[in-house]
């Protein structure tokens, strides 16, 4: 007996994602209110990356999935510059943290309380989301790299949590100075409107050879032939060396038809309503 396909809710039927951002830290801990050049700061994630800028003609930005991932969610920035050196020990206290300024203050926010070369930031915000089942993906800035330290990602049940959480980096080299500059992006926060873990657990998943699905196989062969033809034309000088096919970027299928009604080439930040004290 065949299992009926799941009914996918329309955009109008799907509950709207609600995000409540609560400031935990006092106002004096934010960059705009300080005079020493330190402090927390946050913004919508930047779509640009230095290494992508450095590619010839910035061709890396032609990869739309990369660029979309870059600019989805919010960035929270490192509040103070420091250099960290891990001695290789597994116990807490094995990372020496040398702050550029005010170590007595920022040592309360940044430490190595977990040991094993893990640097920990106590974060200045609490994120709550609706509807029930919505989640919060917290990760290092996407497609942004740190030498000798790797960000630890997390999926948080933000539909009910009332506690703060930490951002953590794992030192990947011992006895090597690792630099964190003030104002560099520290982590990226991406709210997710559904329970992605439960969605995966209950997903209907199939596996087969591509050639066993005639329609998908035909579409793939058409795309592959078109790609090969384009590169052959480029090799013969019939198209500009810097030219590129834009089917995915423009949301077109292999036949040139608009096949993706929800196709996006950029992600605009939502409007934020700042609540005044005493407001209802």
List the helices and strands and how they pair.
Layout: E1 18-23, E2 41-44, H1 50-53, H2 64-70, E3 74-77, E4 82-86, E5 95-99, H3 103-106, E6 110-111, E7 118-122, E8 125-130, E9 135-139, E10 149-152, E11 154-156, E12 166-171, E13 178-180, E14 185-192, H4 196-201, H5 214-235
Antiparallel strand pairs: 1-8, 2-3, 3-14, 4-5, 4-13, 6-7, 7-12, 9-11, 9-14, 10-12
In spatial order, strands of the major sheet run 2-3-14-9-11
The structural class is alpha+beta
Mass-distribution shape: globular
- Mean pLDDT across the residues is 91
What is the distance, rounded to the nearest whole angstrom, between the alpha carbons of the first and last residues? 54 Å
Per CATH, which architecture of the largest domain? Distorted Sandwich
Number of strands: 14
Please give the CATH class of the largest domain.
Mainly Beta
The fraction of residues in strands falls at: 15-25%
Unreliable segments of 5+ consecutive residues: none
Could you say how many structural domains there are in total? 2
CATH topology of the largest domain: Deoxyuridine 5'-Triphosphate Nucleotidohydrolase, Chain A
Number of helices: 5
What's the CATH H-level homologous superfamily of the largest domain? Deoxyuridine triphosphatase (dUTPase)
Radius of gyration: 23 Å
Helix content: 10-25%
Describe the protein's architecture and organization:
By secondary structure, this protein is of the alpha+beta class. It folds into two domains: 18-195, Deoxyuridine 5'-Triphosphate Nucleotidohydrolase, Chain A (Distorted Sandwich); 206-274, no CATH class. Helix content is 15%, strand content 24%. The chain has five helices and 14 strands. It has helices at 50-53, 64-70, 103-106, 196-201, 214-235; strands at residues 18-23, 41-44, 74-77, 82-86, 95-99, 110-111, 118-122, 125-130, 135-139, 149-152, 154-156, 166-171, 178-180, 185-192. The radius of gyration is 23 Å and the shape is globular. It starts with 17 loop residues before the first strand and ends in a 45-residue tail after the last helix.
């Amino acid at each position: 007996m065949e299992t009926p396909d799941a009914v996918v809710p329309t955009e109008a039927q799907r509950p709207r994602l609600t995000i409540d951002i609560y400031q935990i830290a006092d106002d004096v801990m934010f960059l705009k209110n300080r005079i020493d050049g330190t402090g927390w700061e946050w913004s919508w994630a930047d779509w640009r990356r230095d290494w992508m800028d450095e590619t010839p003609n910035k061709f890396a930005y032609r990869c739309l999935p990369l660029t979309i991932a870059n600019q989805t969610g919010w960035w929270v920035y490192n509040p103070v510059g420091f250099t960290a050196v891990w001695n290789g020990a597994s116990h807490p206290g094995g990372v020496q943290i040398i702050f550029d300024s005010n170590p007595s203050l920022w040592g309360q926010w940044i430490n190595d309380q977990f040991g094993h070369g893990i640097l920990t930031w106590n974060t200045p915000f609490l994120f709550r989301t609706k509807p029930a089942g919505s989640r919060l993906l917290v990760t290092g800035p996407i497609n942004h790299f740190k030498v000798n330290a790797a960000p630890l990602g997390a999926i948080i049940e933000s539909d009910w949590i009332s506690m703060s959480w930490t951002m953590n980096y794992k030192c990947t080299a011992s006895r090597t100075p690792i630099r964190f500059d003030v104002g560099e992006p520290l982590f990226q926060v991406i709210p997710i409107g559904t329970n992605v873990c439960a969605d995966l657990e209950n997903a209907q998943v199939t596996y087969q050879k591509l050639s066993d699905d005639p329609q998908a196989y035909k579409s793939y062969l058409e795309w592959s032939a078109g790609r090969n033809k384009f590169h052959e034309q480029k090799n013969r000088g019939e198209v500009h060396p810097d030219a590129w096919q834009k089917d995915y970027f423009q949301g077109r299928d292999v036949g040139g038809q608009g096949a993706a009604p929800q196709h996006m080439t950029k992600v605009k930040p939502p409007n934020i309503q700042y609540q005044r004290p005493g407001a209802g």
